[in-house]
């Protein structure tokens, strides 16, 4: 028996969603062969079913959900991409969803509900038992992306004077425990957390041991209104598995667990990458052409305006260019090098601000370093490109102008690469959102202006 | 008592490293006041001490480490930035480090050792007990960034026929258990994993319950040579807390826990952001000017070559520009819009490839969508900029040329934004490394060529 179990598990290690498998499911759907579809889906883990639904076309997805109906496990819903999830929920019976939610841990239930519109939420909530409903409504009142939304309400809390034996007996008998937990919380009579005991420590202690003797008093407490990005930072810094969430009166109201944090870290990183790449709105690989084109348009429009601004700067020097067309040939080099150097500095600044490696304590040292790097690389590339330009057009003075403009623009790139993200951060705007457009506008405008301006003065 | 405990913990919630506190430590260091320094450091958590060390200047750091000496907790070392860690380890006595490593969980010990050079590793390993030493040497033989490096060797494994009572008694008495654990592994006589039991389930079951009756047989097994990025993906997908690591004979050799995975996810995201921003080598905020300038140089040099290539393209049309200087004014708009549109597509492609949202199953659909988005936005921006250019220079035909070049370049941007990252991924090169330089070179060259080429044909 163990032989086959291992063989089966070995297969599970590899991605179960092979193209062949997906084809089988879609063929069975096309044939309307419900039994075959259910046979194929039955052994799959919820996360794999979710991935399958994410990958399908809208019409295939609809067919699969309608064929599975209430057999679709509720755990699948919380693993779906946001857009797909809303689509699938709309296909299901609100009564079935209400029942599934009532059985879920509260954090998963909130996760499913929070992205639905007001009406969708009400339709489902109205069919839930009164107490579950009240709890979810309370959770939905916390600000979006706060610890209150992320936390799970069910937890194990015991007084410090209990012993291990009593605690274990309580856990064996209690009804309202979370599905999964890794720590128990120790609370005072006012239900304020005073310590935690990891389960392995409970397990390794003798029954008469007092809880207060084995608890960690060094806890990381999270306020219910803390932003989830900050929660993630605390989990990462202190290697936490779970953490108590407290309200404004310091009372224990929930627990955040690391499985949700893993998702937060990954989502926040995706968000930063997306924003820095000029994707302003959330996007999924399965979005339609119309939605995607509209989402991308706004950013490109902003870029069009900044590009026109750069052109206006060039236009100021049209007479100069007319006299010496080599300037038109060489000017993009200065702008492009500045843009790349500025992007480097900005990238380090944005990410270090996000991970808190950059803060008030070392900002000055960072600025000084980046400025010096700009000067050093500015001089090196000025020598390189000055020589290239001078030889190419047989004009030493043109090389000097090119080199001088390069130094100016690399230094401006460094300065704006630091100051723009730090200023945005100070104003509580995510520096990933807008840094790159400001920085490259600066380096384009300054690049063209410095090069053409110096040329007008020194070469004409 | 609980009153003060809560007050203390409330303060702990906020960042303990205030500028005032850091100043106090540095002042005490400057005065050589060892008692004061030790008093300030004593109540700090290891992660906070590490952050303090990360933030300090090299000379301050050296002073603090020398003042603390063997009082510096070994847990601090594993929380330090890589560059800082190597620096601190060099300041400590190899014998002290060897002793600290011998007491650590094996994954933390490997983490500390793996970045040291051969000589540094040997110096420490030679002072460790033979069995600990052999185990670490074995771990260091696994490929870098593999599950073998990440895993922890100590774990709790029991046979399926044990009952809960026996298991709990075993855990109370065993010596060689990991510092922290959340699941126990069930193994067959050949030590192959056949299931897992989360601790909370052991705890909630009566003593006579058979382990085989409460174990999950649906496990996620990780091969010892799996890349850590893939391990992280499995943890994220299946919401794992820990997972069994097996060797080539399917035997259980270790366990990977989610606290290490949290770090991996964050590091891999930082790496992608860094690479896409043109930072080719790892960088820390505290690196020196010389190191940083050298690290950034190579990427800027590649960019210089591509910028010169774009200039050569412009140079082909110098006679055309000489006749009509408006072309020089407008040409950067076409290149810049293409670069931004290409970067958008590339960003989505690179991130979706990394998170596996984009794969062979939906690649074709994604390509088709991006191409259509390029066509749609290309036409919209062609109309916009065509009108602007035509009015600006009072030349309708110039507007037509500008619009046509815009469509061409936006479509090229979409195609290269998809194909470049997918091709790199196919060749097992991280698409984040080189995509942006290929894509923007394409859009620069094609942008200038299309605009100036069409102008030479239609306007001259």
Total of helices of chain A: 23
Count every beta strand of chain A, where a strand is a DSSP E run of 2 or more residues.
6
What's the number of structural domains of chain A? 3
Rg of chain A is 30 Å
- Chain pair forming the biggest interface: A-B, 139 and 137 residues
In CATH, what is the homologous superfamily of the largest domain in chain A? SLC41 divalent cation transporters, integral membrane domain
Shape of chain A: globular
- Indicate the CATH topology of the largest domain in chain A: Tetracycline Repressor, domain 2
Helix vs. strand class of chain A? mainly alpha
Fraction of residues of chain A in helices?
A: 55-70%
Please name the CATH architecture of the largest domain in chain A.
Orthogonal Bundle
* CATH class term of the largest domain in chain A: Mainly Alpha
End-to-end distance of chain A, in Å? 89 Å
Largest sheet of chain A: 3 strands, mixed
Q: What are the low-pLDDT stretches of chain A, counting only 5+ consecutive residues below 50?
A: 1-13
Give the SSE string of chain A.
HHHHHHHHHHHHEHEEHHEHEEHHHHHHH
Task: Name the assembly state.
Answer: homodimer
């Amino acid at each position: 028996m163990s032989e086959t179990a291992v063989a089966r598990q070995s297969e599970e290690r590899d991605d179960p969603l092979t193209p062949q498998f997906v084809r089988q499911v879609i063929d069975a759907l096309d044939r309307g062969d419900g039994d075959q579809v259910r046979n194929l889906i039955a052994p799959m883990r919820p996360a794999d079913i979710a991935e399958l639904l994410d990958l399908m076309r809208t019409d295939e997805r609809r067919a699969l959900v309608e064929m599975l109906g209430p057999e679709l496990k509720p755990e699948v819903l919380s693993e779906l991409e946001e857009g797909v999830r809303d689509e699938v929920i709309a296909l299901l019976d609100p009564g079935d969803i209400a029942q599934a939610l009532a059985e879920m841990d509260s954090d998963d239930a909130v996760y499913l509900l929070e992205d639905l519109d007001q009406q969708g939420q009400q339709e489902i909530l109205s069919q839930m038992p009164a107490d579950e409903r009240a709890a979810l409504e309370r959770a939905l009142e916390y600000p979006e992306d706060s610890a209150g939304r992320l936390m799970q309400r069910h937890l194990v809390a015991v007084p410090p004077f209990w012993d291990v034996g009593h605690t274990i007996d309580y856990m064996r008998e209690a009804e309202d425990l979370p599905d999964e937990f890794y720590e128990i919380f120790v609370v005072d009579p006012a239900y304020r957390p005073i310590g935690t005991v990891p389960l392995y420590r409970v397990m390794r202690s003798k029954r008469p041991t007092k809880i207060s003797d084995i608890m960690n008093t060094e806890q990381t407490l999270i306020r219910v209104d803390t932003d989830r990005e900050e929660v993630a930072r605390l989990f990462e810094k202190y290697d936490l598995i779970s953490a108590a969430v407290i309200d404004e009166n310091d009372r224990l109201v929930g627990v955040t667990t690391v499985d949700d944090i893993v998702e937060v870290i990954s989502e926040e990183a995706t968000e930063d990458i997306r924003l820095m790449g000029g994707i302003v709105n959330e996007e999924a690989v399965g979005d339609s052409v119309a939605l995607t084109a509209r989402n991308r348009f706004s950013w490109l429009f902003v870029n069009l305006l900044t590009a026109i601004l750069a052109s206006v700067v060039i236009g100021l020097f049209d007479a100069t260019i007319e006299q010496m067309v080599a300037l038109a040939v060489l000017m993009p080099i200065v702008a492009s090098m500045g843009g790349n150097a500025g992007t480097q500095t900005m990238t380090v600044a944005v990410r270090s601000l996000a991970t808190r490696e950059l803060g008030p304590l070392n900002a000055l040292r960072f600025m000084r370093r980046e400025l010096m790097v700009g000067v050093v690389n500015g001089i090196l590339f000025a020598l390189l490109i000055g020589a290239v330009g001078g030889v190419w057009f047989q004009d030493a003075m043109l090389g000097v102008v090119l080199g001088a403009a390069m130094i100016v623009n690399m230094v401006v790139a460094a300065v704006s690469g630091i100051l723009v993200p730090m200023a945005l951060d100070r104003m509580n705007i995510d520096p990933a959102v807008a840094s790159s457009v400001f920085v490259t506008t600066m380096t384009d405008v300054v690049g063209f202006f410095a090069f053409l301006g110096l040329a007008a003065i020194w070469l004409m």
